[in-house]
Amino acid sequence: MVHAAGIFVHAQALCESEQVGEGTRIWAFAHVMKGAVVGHDCNIGDHAFLEAGARIGDRVTIKNQATVWEGVEIEDDVFVGPAVSFTNDICPRSARMKLPTVAKRYGQAKEWLVRTTVEKGASLGACCVILPGIRIGAYATVAAGAVVTRNVPAHALVVGVPARRRAWVCGCGLRLVEIENAFWHCPQCNSSFCERLAGKCISLIRSS
Amino acid sequence: MVHAAGIFVHAQALCESEQVGEGTRIWAFAHVMKGAVVGHDCNIGDHAFLEAGARIGDRVTIKNQATVWEGVEIEDDVFVGPAVSFTNDICPRSARMKLPTVAKRYGQAKEWLVRTTVEKGASLGACCVILPGIRIGAYATVAAGAVVTRNVPAHALVVGVPARRRAWVCGCGLRLVEIENAFWHCPQCNSSFCERLAGKCISLIRSS
Amino acid sequence: MVHAAGIFVHAQALCESEQVGEGTRIWAFAHVMKGAVVGHDCNIGDHAFLEAGARIGDRVTIKNQATVWEGVEIEDDVFVGPAVSFTNDICPRSARMKLPTVAKRYGQAKEWLVRTTVEKGASLGACCVILPGIRIGAYATVAAGAVVTRNVPAHALVVGVPARRRAWVCGCGLRLVEIENAFWHCPQCNSSFCERLAGKCISLIRSS
Question: If B31 and its partner were Cys, which of B14, B51, B177, C118 is the partner (CB 3.0–4.6 Å)?
Answer without folding.
Answer: B14
